[in-house]
């Protein structure tokens, strides 16, 4: 029996003797089945061909990635709580399919993981493996995305509503958009106390890192409508932030991020407006 991992999206499935017949996450219009068809791997196989990468993004924010890139290629982020808040423990934001001894040892040396929170189903990946490696750390997922949990586990905590404060002062914010329960994390101590958003690709940092964008599907180029993008803006507007960390290494709006979100919303709405 194995917990098979979809090689296209990186999602780990419940234990089975044979690979699943399909990946519902990849068959959804927001993702895709690989060009060679559905294929599968396991944690054990990944460890033979890939290794973890751990690097500091800023003080108390540590990125964890996979080399070479695998599946969607996102990286996770460990938020270390301030000295006063550390009894509450550290938060792992988003997950990656690979977990190996080097990553576990590195994060334990930084205080371990007390909670896991994930932006949306494309990054659920091997969340149960990460939880179990850190004493069953609770995993916070928005209840609107419960249908996309491919490996149920008692560690999963489904939360409802528009915000959920985590121990230590960070706040989960439901933005919707890319997924119904699409979530970002507000880290008030980030950016040297000016505040940061960790957004996955719910608010996507684009190649021109002065801006962000929003999509229902990135690989299939399905846009969101203006009312949904306006809702995303309203969701984050009450929070103070000057920096945004997106889903991949290097995708960071380093400063003036709150104004950049507003400019990006207006640019997006103008681009999709019916001017005929």
Topology:
Layout: E1 5-6, H1 24-27, E2 40-41, H2 43-49, E3 51-58, E4 61-67, E5 76-79, E6 91-93, H3 101-109, E7 115-117, H4 127-133, E8 139-142, E9 156-159, E10 163-165, E11 171-174, E12 183-187, H5 190-193, E13 196-200, E14 204-205, E15 212-213, E16 215-217, E17 222-223, H6 226-236, E18 243-246, E19 252-253, H7 257-272
Helix pairs in contact: 6-7
Question: What can you tell me about this protein's structure?
Answer:
This protein is an alpha+beta fold. The protein has one domain: 4-Layer Sandwich (Metallo-beta-lactamase, Chain A), CATH 3.60.15.10. Helix content is 21%, strand content 25%. Strands 3-4-5-6-7-8-9 form a 7-stranded mixed β-sheet. Helix 6 runs antiparallel to helix 7 (257-272). It is globular.
Helix percent band = 10-25%
Order of strands in the sheet with most strands: 3-4-5-6-7-8-9
The rounded distance between the terminal residues' Cα atoms is 58 Å
Assign the structural class, choosing from mainly alpha, mainly beta, alpha/beta, alpha+beta, or little secondary structure.
Answer: alpha+beta
Please name the CATH architecture. 4-Layer Sandwich
Taking pLDDT < 50 over at least 5 consecutive residues as the criterion, the unreliable ranges are: none
The gross shape turns out to be globular
């Amino acid at each position: 029996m194995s917990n098979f991992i979809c090689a296209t999206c990186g999602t780990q499935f419940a234990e089975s003797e044979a690979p699943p017949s399909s990946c519902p996450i990849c068959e959804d219009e927001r993702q895709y089945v690989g060009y060679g068809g559905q294929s599968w791997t396991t944690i054990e196989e990944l460890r033979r061909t890939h290794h973890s990468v751990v690097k500091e993004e800023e003080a108390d924010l540590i990125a964890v990635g996979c080399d070479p890139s695998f599946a969607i290629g996102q990286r996770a982020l460990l938020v270390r709580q301030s000295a006063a808040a550390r009894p509450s423990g550290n938060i792992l934001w988003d997950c990656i399919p690979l977990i190996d001894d080097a990553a576990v040892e590195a994060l334990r040396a930084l205080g371990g993981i007390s909670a896991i929170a994930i932006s949306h189903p494309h990054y659920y990946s091997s969340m149960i493996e990460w939880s179990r490696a850190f004493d069953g750390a609770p995993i916070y997922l928005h209840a609107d995305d419960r249908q996309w949990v491919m490996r149920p586990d008692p560690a999963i905590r489904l939360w409802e509503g528009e915000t959920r404060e985590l121990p230590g002062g960070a706040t989960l914010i439901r933005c919707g958009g890319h997924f119904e329960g699409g979530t970002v994390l507000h880290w008030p101590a980030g950016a040297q106390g000016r505040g940061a958003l960790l957004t996955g690709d719910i608010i996507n940092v684009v190649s021109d890192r002065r801006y962000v964008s929003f999509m229902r599907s990135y690989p299939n180029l399905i846009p969101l409508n203006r009312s949904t993008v306006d809702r995303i803006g309203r969701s984050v507007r009450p929070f103070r932030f000057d920096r945004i960390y997106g889903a991949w290494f290097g995708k960071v709006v380093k400063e003036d991020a709150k104004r950049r979100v507003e400019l990006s919303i207006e640019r997006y709405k103008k681009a999709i407006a019916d001017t005929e």
